[in-house]
Design goal:
heterodimer; A: alpha/beta; Nucleotidyltransferase, domain 5; 2 domains; five-stranded mixed β-sheet; 9 helices; 10 strands; B: alpha/beta; four-stranded mixed β-sheet; 19% strand
């Protein structure tokens, strides 16, 4: 038996396939782009290809992600908050607080010892403190997203970024560079600014250890360091941080499948399952 | 001739305006601000001198304003954007009671008394939501020039709502609309409406008393003016000098300052111009 979870993010779409022992069999990631349904389909197919099995081997598929653009994918839709919690508590069972920094929103989630969500706080009105903020900085500095963390790590004297708005920060970066500030100091400042915003969000739900960091931005070691310095705590960061939402979705699928429910993938193609009526 | 100059170093453009000894507008110059603010200020001053055949010593007083007003080393004085836009708007439209200045990064609404005193002031300075940058980002994501988006928006039949307040998140929304096959005109109208909503809220906070005068670079965008007029239900004052209102106000205040200095000197109370400047003391 296989189950799948697909997390449609604003930037990347992730798929996870688990087997009957809850072992991760395959992960995949594609750019979401403009066509959300197609991205979900591509991520799912890619993960499937890696397992070497066929769509009908997948008993149940759960879709999650992307706030207001949520589209039906798979047999059931579960909110990102539930999926991130499920995934984070599966990988780190002692998790009490989750920080999820994605492309367009940042969430702080508080969970109890039974892995139930007790509170959450979210920044989705504005790109400040999200992955977009880092993307904007990377663009102004002419760097790839993957280079940001390592470059910032070289900073000796991080600069204080005074603006909150991503658009204003772009201008601030240009000004700092024009004055001859080293790129690494500017970038370290950008990471600290996001850490500051995240801290505010975490405090709203209450900071309780252990804290698990999820979402695409958790792949940035500079961001992990900036947060740990600011919180003066160690964060749980899994190598598959970016896939935690998808893994959580797959775990929900596993629960359904274990109760004997079967999704429609058995007799329809995934594309039909994704776009057809009553997907949820 | 004794000329005075106002230099408005904005987030996107730097503008300079030249007034002659009689207080008449003699010339204007504009450059992109870029990252080197001092250079942009220097260049617009040189442009004025070159284009209008004014020698540098004939310029007796220079006032700087705008986001980079402290970065104009050759200024005699720096003045807040608020004062400059109030003075500039009143000069353009003497019955102005409300000024809405829409810049690239900041938007501000002022309520001014008939005497020209600023009575209330509200500003959107923490986020680009109600400012020109929002349109710049939308134009960029549609691969259009900023100068054409206003006209295009006027041709919309079915405006598409942009629900994000954030300029960065609105970009993704624009891309989604494009993917869904919506027309560029309809998306642009939606973007103008979105900024319009934010600006109208700002203007209402200071009372929105007529007449309302628009100033700042975004006033050249007819789509923006239309979106605002539809929402406010009144006609708005826009002049060909509206985008220079900050520089104009600075030049007018520079001239006023110069005349007062001359007066004091003539009265013999003070020995020299430098003395006069210290006698005026630091502005609050």
């Amino acid at each position: 038996m296989l189950v799948a979870g697909v997390d449609i993010g604003s930037t990347a779409t992730k798929a996870a396939i688990l087997d009957e022992n809850k072992q991760v069999r395959a992960l995949s990631l594609v750019d979401t782009g403009a066509n959300v349904v197609r991205a979900a389909e591509r991520a799912f197919q890619e993960a499937l290809r890696r397992t070497g099995l066929e769509a009908w081997d997948v008993t149940f598929t759960v879709g999650t992600g992307y706030g207001r653009y949520r589209l039906p994918f798979g047999d059931l839709q579960v909110t990102e908050i539930s999926c991130h919690t499920k995934g984070a508590c599966f990988l780190f069972p002692r998790t009490r607080t989750i920080l999820d920094i994605g492309g367009q929103d940042t969430k702080a989630i508080r969970v109890n010892e039974r892995a139930e969500v007790t509170d959450f706080s979210m920044n989705d009105k504005c790109a400040a403190g999200t992955g977009r903020f880092l993307e904007a900085a990377a663009q102004v500095l002419g760097l790839e997203l993957g280079e940001l963390g390592p470059v910032a790590a070289a900073s000796r004297k991080p600069l204080k970024i005074t603006n909150v708005c991503t658009v204003f920060v772009e201008q601030e970066i240009v000004m700092h560079l024009a004055r001859g500030c080293p790129v690494e100091d500017v970038l370290a400042g950008v990471h600290q600014a996001i850490a500051g915003r995240s801290l505010g969000l975490l405090r709203r739900v209450g900071l309780e250890e252990e804290i698990t960091f999820t979402g695409g931005v958790a792949c940035n070691p500079g961001m992990v360091r900036a947060l740990e310095e600011r919180l003066k705590l160690r964060l749980n960061v899994a190598p598959e941080s970016q896939y935690i939402g998808a893994i959580g979705a797959a775990l929900f699928a596993w629960e359904r499948a274990a109760h004997g429910e079967a999704g429609r993938q058995k007799n329809t193609s995934c594309a039909e399952a994704g776009t057809g009526p009553g997907g949820g | 001739m004794s000329y005075s100059v106002g230099i408005d170093v904005g987030a996107r453009m730097t503008r300079a305006l030249l007034l002659d000894g009689h207080g008449r507008v003699q010339g204007r110059a504009i450059r992109e601000t870029g990252a080197r603010l001092e250079l942009a200020a220097q260049q617009v001053l040189e442009d004025l001198c070159g284009n209008y055949r004014v020698s540098r010593p004939e310029i007796v007083y220079i006032a700087s304003t705008g986001y980079g007003r402290y970065r104009v080393p050759f200024r005699q004085i720096q003045i807040t954007e608020m004062s400059c836009h109030a003075v500039g708007a009143l000069w353009l439209f003497p019955r102005t009671r409300t000024v809405l200045d829409i810049g690239a990064m900041n938007s501000r609404a002022l309520r001014i008394a008939p005497t020209g005193r600023v009575e209330a002031f509200r500003m959107n300075d923490r986020c680009a939501s109600g400012a020109g940058r929002f349109l710049e980002r939308v134009a960029r994501s549609l691969e259009l020039e900023l100068e054409e988006v206003g006209e295009l928006s006027l041709r919309s039949q079915d405006p598409q709502p942009i629900s994000s307040i954030c300029a960065v998140l609105a970009e993704s929304e624009v891309i989604n609309h494009v993917t869904a096959g919506k027309s560029v005109e309809d998306i642009l109208r939606g973007a103008h409406n979105s900024i319009g909503e934010r600006l109208v809220a700002l203007v209402r906070q200071v009372g929105a008393h007529p007449e309302i005068t628009l100033t700042g670079g975004v006033t050249k965008n007819r789509g923006m003016v239309r979106a605002l007029e539809e929402r406010l239900g009144v006609q708005l004052n826009v002049s060909p000098h509206s985008d220079y209102a900050g520089a104009l106000g600075a030049a007018l205040l520079a001239r006023q300052r110069w005349l007062r200095l001359q007066e004091s000197a003539a009265r013999g109370r003070l020995q020299s111009c430098e003395g006069a400047q210290t006698a005026f003391g630091p502005s609050p």
